[in-house]
Recover the amino acids of this structure.
């Protein structure tokens, strides 16, 4: 409107600017123009420092908010959008009073959406004291609640002058990007193994010994993809064993090699002509 602007819009704009300032210290960041904004506020590539250079790292997207509240997806196009993410998707919440930004990962979203299709999905960013909760879906599929747990990062603007702190936060963010990306890739490849940590601390690396959530979901509709994945994995295992062990050392695994080759022969229908050609050339295994 000429000469004025709604208070809420102004607060939201300032929160978005604060998020952009913090995120851009960790990543090459492109702001999505408001006319093109369909849910992602920023498209990012992690900036990984190498000497006096920053290299472009993995891609991820961000939605910025000015307060911690539930995010609801209920319309058909909203559900299709949130359940079809192809890059790690983070929620960033700006705190204007402390000039800080909380980062929330949405990796646990996959546990819910590949298990059940609800009519409404609610993302719930938690607090520092919240423990991770598994997705909850109503029996009538009316609603699915995804708890995002506590923030993975909580960064104040004043910390961004410290190169060491920025590097530490970028490294932690990289861990969470890798977790989400692996799950997304597996999903689209038809391998519904979803893995992520249940124990972590804000602003600290994902602990190596953290007990992970491991979810496997299956469906008869996934048979063809499973057969394709099996054929490729079994072919790769046989060829890599040949490369790793060599002809002499392979003899030490004679029975196991024989069993693997028998499986490949029994499931020859899972192998495409290229796989059979590779096996014949690299290992001498001729599968008709």
């Amino acid at each position: 409107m000429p000469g004025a602007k709604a208070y809420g819009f102004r607060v939201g704009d300032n929160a978005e600017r604060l998020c952009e300032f913090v995120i851009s210290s960790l990543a090459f960041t492109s702001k999505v123009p408001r006319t093109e904004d369909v849910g992602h506020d920023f498209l990012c590539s992690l900036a990984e420092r190498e000497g006096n250079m920053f290299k472009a790292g993995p891609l991820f997207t961000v939605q910025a908010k000015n307060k911690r509240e539930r995010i609801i997806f209920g319309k058909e196009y909203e559900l299709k959008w949130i359940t079809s993410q192809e890059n790690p998707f983070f929620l960033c919440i700006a705190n204007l009073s402390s000039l800080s930004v909380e980062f929330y990962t949405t990796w646990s979203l996959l546990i819910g959406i590949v298990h059940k299709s609800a009519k409404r999905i609610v993302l719930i960013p938690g607090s520092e004291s919240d423990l991770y909760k598994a997705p909850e879906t109503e029996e009538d599929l009316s609603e699915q609640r995804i708890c995002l747990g506590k923030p993975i990062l909580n960064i104040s603007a004043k910390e961004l002058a410290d190169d060491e702190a920025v590097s530490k936060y970028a490294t932690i963010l990289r861990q969470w990007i890798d977790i989400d990306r692996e799950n997304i890739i597996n999903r689209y490849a038809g391998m519904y193994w979803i893995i992520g940590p249940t124990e972590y601390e804000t602003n600290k690396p994902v602990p190596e010994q953290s007990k992970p959530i491991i979810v496997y979901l299956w469906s008869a509709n996934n048979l063809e993809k499973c057969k394709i994945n099996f054929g490729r994995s079994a072919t790769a295992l046989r060829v890599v064993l040949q490369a790793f062990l060599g002809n002499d050392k392979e003899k030490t695994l004679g029975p196991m090699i024989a069993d693997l080759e028998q499986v490949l022969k029994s499931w020859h229908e899972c192998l495409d002509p290229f796989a059979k050609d590779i096996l014949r050339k690299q290992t001498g295994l001729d599968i008709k």
Summary: The mean pLDDT is 88. The helical segments are 7-23, 76-82, 109-113, 163-188, 223-250, 254-266, 273-283.
